[in-house]
Amino acid sequence: MVSAVLENAENTYGYLTARENIKYFAALYGKKITNEKISQLLQNFDLQNAERTKVSYFSRGMKQKLSIICSLLNDADILFLDEPTLGLDFKANKELLAMIKMMTTERGKTVILTSHQAEVVSILADNILLLDKGKISYLGSYENFIRENSLTIYEIQTEKEKYDFENQEAAEQKLEVLITEKQKIISFIEKEKSIDEILISYYEGENHVQG
Predict the structure, then answer these.
(1) Buried-most residue among 39, 70, 159, 169 (CB within 10 A)?
(2) How far from the centroid of its chain's Cα atoms is residue 176's Cα?
(3) Using CA atoms in the order 32, 36, 42, 48, what is the torsion angle rounded to 10 degrees?
(4) Long-range contacts of 116-124 (CB under 8 A, 24+ apart)
């Protein structure tokens, strides 16, 4: 069984309450669901205080969580999520990511997720598929991708400007020049590229699909 929650789509009905939506979708799947089970689902997704509120009054994050509840009522083994955290505030984003992680680790669900947000990928992904102009540019484990594309950055921060180098020797040479020029050095640090920086370098580099 497969279910999907699509971004920018009305996955639930605004004129129904959270509890009514769950009852409705359970009936569509031919499932009998008790009031106790509905209460438990709402509690699991921190919606218990809004169970009798019409969904049209829900925040975006609350709607996303209710949509996921309804998508799981048919006990689907595979769940497609399209940009599930897009537009959410920090708290709702964190809560929803935790819920999705819980579904895979505790309920054994396979989640296929599309996202342009690097943070979401870094928190949730076991395997990733990167597309460039409609073509597959990478398919494999997230861990291997990071290992193959990770890079140390040497950052020099002065009062006037910041310099980034991928080569330690070049960074040290620049540092000497700046010192000779009597520029004030705020910091000289070694750091690993963030997932955002890795992805930007990847798409700009030789792996980029041309034309």
Answers:
(1) 70
(2) 41
(3) 140
(4) 116/83, 117/83, 117/85, 117/86, 118/194, 118/195, 118/196, 118/199, 119/195, 120/84, 120/85, 121/195, 122/195, 123/97, 124/97, 124/100
**Tokens representing 190?**
């070694």
The token pair at 211 is 């034309």
Query: What's CA 157's distance to the chain center, in Å?
Result: 31
Report the distance separating Cα 71 and Cα 25, nearest Å.
8
Residue type, 49: N
Phi and psi at residue 43, in whole multiples of 5°? -65, -40
Q: How far apart are CA 23 and CA 21, in angstroms?
A: 5
pTM: 0.67
Question: Burial level of 45, CB count in 10 A (0-12/13-18/19+)?
Answer: buried
Q: Parallel, antiparallel, or unpaired: how do β-strands 78-82 and 2-5 relate? A: parallel
- Do 72 and 3 contact (CB within 8 A), yes or no? yes
211 residues of the chain, pLDDT tens digit each: 688 887 766 889 999 999 999 999 999 989 889 999 999 989 988 899 999 999 999 988 889 889 988 988 888 889 998 988 877 778 878 888 888 888 888 888 899 999 888 888 888 999 999 988 888 999 999 989 888 887 788 899 998 899 988 788 999 999 999 999 989 999 999 888 778 878 888 888 755 543 3
**Which residues pair with residue 154 across a beta bridge?**
165, 190
